[in-house]
Structure to design on (108 residues):
């Protein structure tokens, strides 16, 4: 069974960190399983980014509240505001490049 998250928990993570990444996935999504290790590798390179991996099967309303209707979905928040979003066709190089730009700006 997937962990259920309250909207307040997710908002707390987003609003209490300069950068945060939310990864929406599903047990039945093959692409999600392929992309997830790449997302984890990106997160290792940027240790100040806080992250949540949310399985939509237990969090359908939560996913909908972030306008996530296709999987996988990656949303990066900077200072509480959505800065990067990719869904379905995820380009990890592009995500990392965009994260790097924001990360350097915040951490230098």
């Amino acid at each position: 069974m997937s962990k259920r998250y309250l909207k307040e928990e997710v908002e707390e993570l987003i609003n209490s960190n300069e950068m945060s990444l939310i990864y929406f996935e599903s047990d039945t999504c093959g692409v999600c399983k392929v992309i997830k290790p790449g997302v984890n590798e990106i997160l290792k390179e940027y240790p100040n980014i806080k992250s949540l991996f949310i399985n939509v099967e237990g969090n359908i309303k939560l996913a909908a509240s972030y306008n996530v209707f296709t999987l996988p979905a990656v949303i990066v928040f900077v200072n509480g505001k959505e800065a990067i979003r990719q869904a379905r066709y995820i380009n990890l190089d592009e995500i990392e490049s965009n994260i790097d730009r924001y990360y350097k700006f915040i951490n230098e």
Q: What stands out?
A: Strands lie at 19-25, 50-55, 73-78, 81-87. The chain has one domain: 7-107.
